[in-house]
Design goal:
Chain lengths: ~250, ~400
């Protein structure tokens, strides 16, 4: 539910991934981002689930001690479509020096304010990733972003260019299945669990499609892991990919 | 202004300090604030309070590195003897090997000494005592406490571990369910002539139960027990005001020479008996732990086990969250702690409540069933449950820190 497209900055060179109405939609939600019971409640619930996957991936990729509280110490991280910093802040707490990028200036303003309150030094930038001239990062994340961009191929290529040699990338997205259409778009948005207009089902991506996009950018996708929902467990990691999935990628 | 630490623990008693130490062992830093002077809390003869330490609680102490220090300082409880006003005939409950241990009795003072020594050596604990908190603050980003000397301590999560009358809980408006038994427990340490044989005695009198919990011998070989004597609220002040000689004579009258001549080895303290339980153990960036969340009857010395399970669960929830990069005050972590602990605490508190009622609040039980057989059989069940539940892990999921 984050976004990688600039909202108002029309003079940016690379317009490949722009979808202005999406940026505006998320910008309106900015003030509410950090309220665990507010309009981003579902994202707060999703956060520990995707962080658990991320932590395991970090441990496996760099051989880190699962007990450590700072496994990303000495690593640089880029969170694309960072919103108000729901993922960027945990990455910083895990020890990474974090850069967060979001197309909506309102999100970046909310993110900066929150990081200051939390005592975290995070480099937040608003605008189009390609126009920011950032370097390469050990860890690149784009969670719940790829489904919001118009030119997915250009977007993935952009991410790949910012991945340092030997680095680790993490992506998550809703899957394009009848289940996700029913649950995430019609039901969740209908009931108000996710703000209306957050998702456009036709833009969702399936794991094989993502695999091919990554391969085209010279990246190898790991086994996708599902994020499923059950009333008893809430959101949890699962073999069931039907709703939402999360993957790692590294240079092939 | 001092640095912002992860935890701001208000109340540095047994529960608060065990939490600070357990958290520190996992790399989590804390401020610990307590009103009392540590030196007076560990002074000889400070109070006679004692705790039954279950197997699970013992595992926690071992896992935070106190096993060596505490080993050989606890008295094993081998059996519980139940009698009706010392009339002939008694029921002994002695667990079979497969039923597990009834735990060990420790003087609270001994536990405190071990915790305080370890806390002094732990860099991740910044200990402020004696210090009075004049103002508490919690918001979306963090928590702080202002001390009477003007110092401001900051943290990400505030823990109220101040005991039954937690001012932090009151200020946060977390409601307690409570009822008052209109009785007080008078607690004192006894030296006695004859050995107790590692037996805990529960002696029922119409005016209330009288419990003797076995303690290790004193430094000069004195045989020792902790006395928990329940008296009606209206009589308590009078009993507490008795001269030592008169008090000893009242106690001896009720023990009928069970352990021979007795003397006191601590000050007398007293606690109102009541049932108290919070349905909500958390608020924004605040959690309750130990007696601040649940006061139970001291009759079997089990209150600390419950508090230590709070500690184990809280540390596990925090560590699991922090390994994912979550803020220690994250609302979802607090929710997990509350779900985990509130039902368990309620179950144990209810057991204690039923024990207390069976123990014979005067007038409640017809005199007929107070006769030995019936009363013994009725009472031994919940008593046994009370001693054994903690070691077994009544809530299903025992925190990792409480496992061997």
């Amino acid at each position: 539910m984050t976004i990688a497209t600039p909202g108002t900055n029309a003079d940016l060179a690379d317009q490949a991934t722009i979808r202005p109405e999406e940026a505006a939609h998320f910008g309106r939600l900015a003030a509410d981002w950090w309220d665990p019971d507010g309009s981003s409640a579902m994202l707060h619930k999703l956060n520990p689930v995707r962080l658990a996957f991320l932590r395991d991936a970090v441990n496996a990729h760099w051989g880190k001690d699962p007990q450590s509280l700072k496994p990303l110490a000495g690593k640089s991280a880029l969170d694309v479509g960072c919103g108000a910093g729901l993922l960027a802040e945990p990455l910083a707490r895990l020890g990474a020096s974090v850069t967060g990028v979001d197309a909506a200036a309102e999100n970046i303003a909310a993110a900066r304010e929150h990081a200051a309150g939390s005592g975290l030094a995070i480099d937040y930038r608003d605008g189009e990733l390609e126009a920011l001239g950032l370097g390469a990062f050990d860890l690149v994340t784009a969670m719940e972003v790829v489904e919001h961009v118009a030119d997915k191929q250009a977007f993935i290529h952009g991410l790949a260019r910012h991945l340092a040699p030997g680095g680790l990338m993490l992506l998550s997205s809703p899957n394009r299945t009848p289940q996700s259409r029913l649950l995430m778009v019609q039901l969740a948005e209908g009931l108000g669990a996710i703000p209306k207009g957050t998702h456009n089902w036709d833009d969702f991506i399936t794991p094989p499609e993502l695999h091919d996009l990554l391969a085209d950018a010279g990246l190898k996708m790991g086994d996708p892991c599902g994020i499923a929902y059950s009333p008893a467990k809430g959101l949890h990691l699962s073999n069931n990919l039907a709703l939402n999935f999360i993957v790692t990628a590294r240079q092939a | 202004m001092s640095e912002t630490r992860e935890l701001l623990i208000l109340g540095g008693g047994l529960v608060g300090m065990t939490l600070a130490l357990a958290a520190a062992r996992q790399g989590i830093a804390s401020h610990v604030v307590d009103m009392a002077d540590p030196a007076s809390l560990t002074a000889d003869g400070f109070d006679g309070r004692a705790s039954a330490i279950s197997t699970a609680s013992w595992n926690l102490f071992c896992n935070i590195g106190l096993g060596e220090r505490l080993k050989a300082q606890g008295c094993p409880i081998d059996a519980i003897a139940v009698t009706d006003a010392m009339k002939p005939g008694r029921i002994d409950f002695r667990p079979e090997p497969h039923e597990g241990s009834l735990g060990h009795m420790f003087a609270n003072r001994t536990l405190r000494q071990a915790l305080f020594e370890a806390a002094r050596e732990e860099e991740l604990i910044e200990w402020h005592a004696p210090a009075r908190v004049t103002e508490r603050q919690r918001d979306a980003y963090g928590v702080s406490a202002t001390l009477a000397n003007g110092e401001v301590l900051k943290g990400r999560l505030m823990v109220a571990a101040e005991g039954r009358r937690s001012p932090t809980r009151e200020e946060a408006g977390l409601q307690l369910a409570r009822w008052d038994y209109k009785h007080r427990a008078i607690i004192v340490g006894l030296d006695h002539e004859k050995p107790h044989g590692n037996v805990a005695w529960e002696i029922f009198y119409p005016a209330g139960p009288f419990a003797l919990l076995p303690m290790l011998d004193g430094p000069d070989g004195q045989h020792r027990s902790a006395l928990v004597w329940t008296v009606a609220e209206r009589d308590a002040a009078g009993v507490l005001a008795l001269s030592e000689r008169a008090f000893v004579s009242e106690v001896e009258k009720r023990m009928e020479g069970l352990f021979g001549a007795i003397t006191l080895n601590s000050q007398r303290s007293s606690y109102p008996l009541g049932f108290q339980h919070t349905a909500r153990m958390t608020a924004e960036r605040l959690v309750l732990a130990g007696d601040a969340a649940h006061g139970i009857h001291p009759i079997a010395g089990q209150g600390l086990n419950l508090g230590l399970r709070d500690v184990g669960a809280l540390v596990e929830v925090l560590v699991d969250g922090m390994r994912l990069g979550l803020d220690p005050g994250d609302a979802q972590l607090l929710k997990r702690y509350e779900r985990w602990r509130s039902l368990d605490n309620f179950t144990v508190a209810l057991t204690c409540d039923s024990v207390t009622r069976l123990f014979g609040i005067p007038g409640r039980l017809p005199s007929a069933i107070r006769r030995f057989g019936m009363a013994g059989v009725q009472r031994i069940g919940p008593l046994k449950k009370l001693f054994m539940d903690e070691a077994r892990g009544v809530s299903g999921t025992l925190p990792r820190l409480l496992k061997a």
